[in-house]
Amino acid sequence: MPPPADIVKVAIEWPGAFPKLMEIDQKKPLSAIIKEVCEGWSLGNHENFALQIADATNFYITEKNRNDIKNGSILRLTTSPYQTAVQLHERIQSSSMDAKLEALKDLANASRDITFAQEFINLDGISLLTQMVESGTDFGDLLSFTLTAFVELMDHGIVSWDTFSVAFIKKIASYVNKSAMDTAVLQRSLAILESMVLNSQDLYHKVAQEITIGQLIPHLQGTDQDIQTYTIAVINALFLKAPEEKRQVRLQFAHTEMAHILAQKQLRSIILSNVIRSPTPINDEMAHQLYVLQVLTFNLLEDRMMTKMDPQDQAQRDIIFELRRIAFDVECEPNNSGSIEKRKSMYTRDYKKLGFINHVNPAVDFTQIPPGMLALDNMLYFARHHQDAYIRIVLENSSREDKHECPFGRSSIELTKMLCEILKVGELPSENCHDFHPMFFTHDRSFEEFFCISIQLLNKTWKEMRATSEDFNKVMQVVREQIMRALTLKPNSLDQFKSRLQNLSYTEILKIRQSERMNQEDFQSRPILELREKIQPEIMELIKQQRLNRLCEGTCFRKISSRRRQGETHTVLTRIYVQAFEPDPTPSSPTHHNHGDTVPVADIKAVITGKDCPHMKEKGALKQNKEVLELAFSVLYESDEYLNFIAPDKHEYCVWTDGLNALLGKEMTSDYTKSDMDTLLSMEMKLRLLDLENIQIPEAPPPIPKEPSNYDFVYDCN
C-alpha cells in the first residue's frame, strides 16, 4: 500500500552524528518537526535550529518552501537563520584578519538564501557592509567576499538602491577606475554599478559623474570574458538610462558625449578585436550584451528616422541639390542664368531621373515618417562614399523606358524604412535575445554601409526580375527575403554579407521557395487555408478554456509584497485560484476565508510583465536575475495596488499571463499559445481531411494489451 501523500521519507544529517532516516508529516508544523529532530539528538532550545537542503545551495526549509521536499531528500540540521545572521554579524567585525575572511566567505555563501538574507538585513547588515567598503581598509579576498555578500543580499530586492551614499558610489567607482584590480573585486564592482544605474535615475547621474566610457574601455582589452561582459553591461546601462535628450541624438553630428563615444572607432574596434574575434567562444550572456549594444546604437538613428523634412529649410534642400550635382555633374546655376521656367523644367527632369515621386518638389518625399530624414542621409552617404555605384545606378535607370526604370529616390526611401524594420530601430532591446550581428561592429558607419549594399542589391534584383513600376512592391518583398536570408547566416563582415547576397539571386530565391513548398505539408492550398482560418477562433477558444481551467486548479507562486519596508518578510508562498462562488459553497470548496488575498476579476486593471513589474525594478545585474525577469508578472488592481509573482517555470508563466489576459478580454500572445495553436490546428486539419476520405476514426483508443501471466520465457533470436 503506497504511503500517504503527506508523508515524505528523508535523511537528516547533524555534524558528528550518524544521519537519521525519518518520515516527515507535511501536515505538522515545521517547528514541531525540528523539535522532534533535536530531541532525537538530545539537543535543547529547538527554536535555535532549522533544517537546510544538504546540497550546494544550503537553502533553509521554511513553511513557504517545505513542499519542495521530495522522497529521498537529504536535509541538514543547522542553526536557525536568525542565529546564523547574529553570529556572522559579529564574526565579520573580528579584529583577526583570518577569522574575518572566513566569516565573509560564510556570509557570501549564506546570503544566496533569502530567508537568511532577510534576517541579516534586519540586523542592519547592509549598512555594516557598506561601512566596511567605505572605510577602504580591506583589500584582496576580504574586499572580494565583502562585495560578493553585498551583491547577493541586494539581489533579493529587499533593500532599495536609493539608500546608498555618494561615498559608497565613489569607492565602488574607484575600484573600476583602477588599472590593476583583483578580478573578483572588479567583476562585483561592475555588477553593482550596473544595478545602481538600472534601478535608480538619481544614481545614474551620480555614477555617470564617476565613470566615463573611456575609463571602462581598458577592461574590454583583457581576456576575461566575464569582466568584458559586465563592462559592456555597464556601458549599455549608462546608455539605456541616459536622459531622453541625450539618447535621441543625431548620430551624424554626435553632439552628446554618449553618442560620440559609441560612434567613435575606438570602442567599436576594441569590441571587434578583443571580444567578437577573440579565440574564446562567445557565451549567451555576452551575446545578449552585444545584442543590446547593437540595438541601442541603431536606436541613435531614431531621431532622424522620425524627423520630417522641412521643404522650406535651405540646408536640407541643399542636400537634394548635392545629389543632383553628383549624379549629373552639374553646378548650381546662378539665378540670372536662363529663365525661371527653363530652370524649373531642368530641375524637374533631373529629379525625375533621380527617381523621386514628386518631381517638382522632392522635399515632399521625405515628409513620410518613418524613414524621414534618415533616407536622405543614406542617399547622400551613398552618393559621396560610393560615387561610381551611385552615378551608375542613376544613369542606368534614367536611360531605360519609364515603366522599366528602378526609381532611385523612391527605392531609397522604402529601403531605408525596410532596414529600420529589420533592425527594429526605435524598439527597446528584448530581455532574452542574443541575436547580434558581428558585421555591424566592423564599420563606424555600419547602417549606412548596410544601406549602400542593399540599394545595389535592389537595383540588381530589379533587373533580374525585369520589373516594371507596377512590380515595385514585389521587388521589395524579394529584396527583404534576400537580406533576411543573408543575415540569418551571420556574416562576419560587410564584404561577407555582400558575397552572400551575390549567391542569393532572384533565380536562387525562386529555387529556395520551390524547394520549401515541396517540403511543406500540403496545407497551403487556398481551400485548406480558408478552412484553417475558419476553425482558428474555435481552437483559440479551446486554448482559452484550457488556460482558465488551469487558473482554477491553482499554482503555488512566490508572491512579492508591493509595499516593501526593511525588516518585513516580503516573500510568501501563496496559492492563486479563480473561482465562481456559489450562493452556498460547500465546506470542501475553496473560499476567500482560507485563501489569503482575494481580488475579484472585475477589479483587475492590467497584467504587467518583465522589467515593468514593481518587484523587478530593484533587481540586480546578475545573470540569475535576467532569468527571473522572464518569469515575473504583476496583477494591477484598483488604482495602484499590485499582486507580484514569480512563476516557477516558463510554462506556468505563459499559462498564467495568457489566462489573466483572457480574463481581461485581451489577446493571448505567449509562445506557448502559438505552439498550442499550431499543434491543435494541424491535428484538427488532419482529422478533417481523414474524414473527407471517409476513413473511420474510432471514438476510443485501442485497448492496451493484457499483461502476461507468466514471465518465465525466453525469446529465441534465431
In short:
With 718 residues, the protein is of the alpha+beta class.
Description:
By secondary structure, the protein is an alpha+beta fold. It folds into four domains: 7-79, Phosphatidylinositol 3-kinase Catalytic Subunit, Chain A, domain 1 (Ubiquitin-like (UB roll), Roll), CATH 3.10.20.90; 106-300, Leucine-rich Repeat Variant (Alpha Horseshoe), CATH 1.25.10.10; 314-331 and 338-518, no CATH class; 535-580 and 598-675, Roll (PH-domain like), CATH 2.30.29.30. The protein has helices spanning 30-40, 81-91, 97-110, 114-122, 125-135, 140-154, 166-177, 183-199, 201-210, 213-220, 225-240, 244-247, 257-263, 265-276, 284-298, 302-305, 314-328, 340-353, 373-385, 387-398, 408-423, 446-465, 472-488, 494-503, 506-519, 526-553, 623-629, 650-663, 671-692, and strands spanning 7-13, 20-25, 49-53, 74-79, 555-560, 571-576, 604-609, 632-637, 641-646. The protein has a five-stranded antiparallel beta sheet. Strands 2-1-4-3 form a four-stranded mixed beta sheet. α6 runs parallel beside α8, α17 packs parallel to α19 and α19 packs across α20 (387-398). The protein is globular and about 110 Å long.
Question: Any chance you could write out the topology, listing elements then pairs?
Answer:
Blueprint: E1 7-13, E2 20-25, H1 30-40, E3 49-53, E4 74-79, H2 81-91, H3 97-110, H4 114-122, H5 125-135, H6 140-154, H7 166-177, H8 183-199, H9 201-210, H10 213-220, H11 225-240, H12 244-247, H13 257-263, H14 265-276, H15 284-298, H16 302-305, H17 314-328, H18 340-353, H19 373-385, H20 387-398, H21 408-423, H22 446-465, H23 472-488, H24 494-503, H25 506-519, H26 526-553, E5 555-560, E6 571-576, E7 604-609, H27 623-629, E8 632-637, E9 641-646, H28 650-663, H29 671-692
Parallel strand pairs: 1-4
Antiparallel strand pairs: 1-2, 3-4, 5-6, 5-9, 7-8, 8-9
Helix pairs in contact: 2-4, 3-6, 5-6, 5-7, 6-8, 7-8, 8-9, 8-11, 10-11, 11-15, 17-19, 19-20, 19-21, 19-22, 21-22, 22-23, 22-24, 26-28, 26-29
Protein name: Engulfment and cell motility 1
Domain ELMO: 315-487
Pfam families: ELMO_ARM, ELMO_CED12, PH_12
